[in-house]
Amino acid sequence: MLPDNDTINSHASLEGAVRRGSTFEPVRQFVLALLFCLLPALCLAAEEQKFSTEDIEFFEKKIRPVLVESCQECHQSGEDELAEGGLELDWRGGLAKGGDTGSSINLSDVEQSLLLKAITYTDSDLAMPPDGKISAQAIQDIRTWLQKGAAWPDEKKKQAVVAHFNWEQLRESHWAWKAVKKSALPETKDTQWASNEIDFFVLARLEAQGMQPSPRANKRTLIRRAYLDMLGIPPTRLQVQEFVSGKKNWNQVIEDLLSSPRHGERWGRHWLDVARYSDGYGGYNDNAGRDDAWRYRDGVVQSLNNKMPIDQFLRLQIAGDLIDDGNHSVATGFFALGPIFISDGGDPDSVAMAKIETLDDRVDTLSRGMLGVTLACARCHDHKFDPLPTMDYYSIAGVFNNSSIIDRPIVPQEIVDQYNVSQAKVNGLTAQIVQWEKEEQLTLIEPELRRISRYLISAREWAKVREQAEHRDAALFGESQGLSKIVFAMCAGYFSDEKDSRNNPVMNRWFTEKSDEAALEYEKLIVGLLDNKRAGEKRYQQEIAIAKTDAGRAKVVPVMVNPQWVDQVENRLNPLFNYGGTWHEKLNAEKMAHRNKMKADLDALQKAAPAKYPIVHSLNDSGAANMKIALRGNLRKPGEEAPRRFLRLISGENPPHFKNGSGRLELAHSITAPGNPLTSRVFVNRVWGWHFGQAIVPSRSNFGSFGQRPTHPLLLDWLAASFVEQNWSLEWLHRKILQSSTWQMSSQFDEGNFSKDGSNAYLWRQNSRKLEVEAWRDSMLFVTQELNEQLGGIPTDNLSANSEQSKRRTIYAKTSRNGDRFPSDKFLSLFDFPIPSSSIAKRSPTITPQQSLFLLNHPFVIERAKVLAKVIESGATSTDDQIKMIYETLFSRLPADNELDVGRRFLGQAEDSASESKPKLSRFERYAHALLSSNEFIFVE
Description:
By secondary structure, the protein is mainly alpha-helical. Helices cover 51% and strands 3% of the residues.
């Protein structure tokens, strides 16, 4: 916070005294010194006001757990004893003040922060924690946190941290915890403006502020806005003309939009943000692809196109594999497509950390995505601001602890069985061929193996002379020693090394001494192996199998199968002692024929084998046990058992325990239960935000105490209650919003309203919005008549190519979890596509020079301009008609007189002479390029 008025006034009084006479020079110096001392604290306090909800959520989810687990045991404030080194890391002031070595953070040069130096072990005197570095991901999170200003919430808001929770009182303490109440429509002075219930709530707030709503947008603006809003593509010229002429009324336009399959694609994409949907690849050591993720995407689109009630839709996201005989397993991709944190060391601590991080992703995605609460902040301690105890966190985490991720077939079992039988035959014959070839190669090479000492000694001698020109060819040197050229060339380098790079303990003596005796000893070992093998293949294989088991290693076994060298021939020497890719040419005719027959049989089996059955990435019940609280978020420090049940904030002191399997099905029903005030509010708020560009509750995924309050609380509750009454119908909600005068307002500027409400929080006009990258790119392909409108299917990874697949809707692009794997990632991120590593509350539109340069120079845009020019020139002949047609096509309106005049003058000029420095575009193509790249095309009014 900023310094209070008393502090400022006292500073001013001292400054005035200094100005009145030089007698106060010592005072001036003292004041300046004092101000310099206070400056860091004042700046730090001032910065607290700048932290966004997202910054605080990042701190609570990523930073505080690390501080609690790894730092605060020694570095926390207390009355009884001083924090170690004077450093207190349980409040922001302590972090800034630092300890004996100075302030822990340096926000002007993050890399010089003592905290960062300590956790990265770059300064051995500071290295912390002393028992080992925290994970690389945690270090990067702290670096990011510091770069963003080291957000830390105002600790005065610790109202939720109490010894006992009075749930009834707490539910009445904050608007979001209260039951949804459907208020009567407010009275308004203006009785003519409202078209439906929504408008009364909006108008009442405007009138209370002394403001008036903007006029209704014209028909052309309305229909363009509606199509882009609902379908993500503009209307055709014919669709505009039908509405403008009165052939179709507004309600008919709305029904056309709701019945279009494009609706599911547009609004499904919105939900994919919440689901942090990606095709995998990258993040948290989980570099695997989710190659069938697209089936979840298609399931979302299909559910919305089928007008599935949203409560059913949400239940399927959580427990689709447990509903309707598992026919909706694909819906659980909502969780199954999330990251699986993988241990970076394999030690118990790393394994436990990876597991808790994976569970945390599931808990966070559920709680923020569907409930609008930051439950993940209660992982290490009771939530600092909301009545969400750690016990409740592990009640929900326990559900996911009993839910594994599987690749589930979506075909009848008999098809799976047929595939498995076929693959078993293929794998069996493949293994048989591999073993046969291994045996034959050993037979061919056996004479050379029996004189391996000569290869070892020759390799030693070759190492002495190989720098000489006549001996640089190892093969020729080996031949001069009476050895196989091919074999010696393969093994000479290895045998002549100073040490065994393959960690071959049996040859340690050779690599240490390089003596004739060591070579003969190793040869005796190999010959013994070969003799033993030839004496009794079956006995040999049995002994080898025993020797390779953990139990076998503890036994005394015959010397010829000592477990230290049982793999000498098969794994150590075969890669070195062989005839390379031509080994089979040394087979006799009979063996060659046998090999060819086996290969032919394998080829026939592979061709006859059925294709792999389709699968979905799905959740699966894998247990039914409660978790124990992980003290300070550490699973290796178990605390009290947490029964699997729903949040007590919603369900009361003693909610029913989940008893069926993992508890996911019971959790799903709790999420959509009539008494849950959060889910319906959160969903209608998201829909409102997607329609208007700003939500009623601006912090869309945080309805808690540290989130933002609703701008229209009565409207939010009226919508939530009515939505449930209408059987959770998204179509009803769309209709209600699109039919409202609120949505139909123009976006025109009004100086009086703006002076009172510059952010348009009270909705005195419609917001002018930049299209998301998907809608913008799809619109560009749509107006050029190139858009491939195929529904669903395997995604494409290059949105800038000219193939038919690359011209599909942008929802069908591949995206990686880190946003850095595919060409499509690069294209999307340039235009504000978020990195889908966690649930996304809203997009953050930007306008950057890189975007402008892309529009000006990229072949994708230039090619669209060329195609658009052809479309227009083939549809109209006169210059005026072409100008009108391109304006109607791109902007759903006719050009103004001055725009028509500019177009005439530009297109009427002579063509420029072509040169190497200029793109070879015709004048009309350049005109099309300019309009296609204009702000009006990428914005919706």
